Amino acid sequence: MTGDALHRQQAAMDRARLSLLTASDTLNLAGIYYLQDKATGSDGSWHSLLDESLAALQASEQAFARFERLSATAPEAADALKGSYRLFYDGLKEQAQGLQRSDSIDAFFAVPIQAFQADFNEKYLAYQALNERRGDDVNVRQLAAL
């Protein structure tokens, strides 16, 4: 793998991760506003936050699809990261759809999203460490070729 290919793969994952974390944060805010609306008799302050969260999920999915294409022959750390990403993404999607479809906060408590996020963070750090080693290997090979 070349240094450029490694960089493109890493950049795609970074975009997917950033959008996924943005979706998570915004969805949490939507849940808080939802509960506040229910407590005060208001309605609707959470809808725009939910829309933002869904848009961030879509952006994450697009970046992740690019990452998958770029890492088709990736080592185990990328495969583990892909599975963990999917669990975290699907969990957020389930929470968002639960809030959207049933006008209920129940999905927030039914989905173990903190565990999914912790696992994703762990796999992401392992992937980062592997990429550092792979980048070093690429640099050594390039220097040796001079």
From TrEMBL:
Classification of source organism: Eukaryota, Metazoa, Ecdysozoa, Arthropoda, Hexapoda
Claim: NAD is one of the keywords in the record: no
UniProtKB keywords: Cell membrane, Membrane, Transmembrane, Transmembrane helix
Protein name, UniProt field: Chemotaxis protein
Protein's organism: Lasius niger
CDD domains referenced in this protein's UniProt entry, alphabetically: Tar_Tsr_sensor
Gene Ontology terms describing biological process: chemotaxis; signal transduction
Chemotaxis methyl-accepting receptor Tar-related ligand-binding domain ranges (all copies): 4-139
Database matches in Pfam families: TarH (PF02203)
Chief place where the protein resides: membrane
Gene Ontology cellular component list: plasma membrane
Superkingdom as given in the UniProt entry: Eukaryota
InterPro entries: 4HB_MCP_dom_sf (IPR035440), Tar_rcpt_lig-bd (IPR003122)
UniProt entry tagged with the keyword Transmembrane helix: yes
Subcellular location: Cell membrane
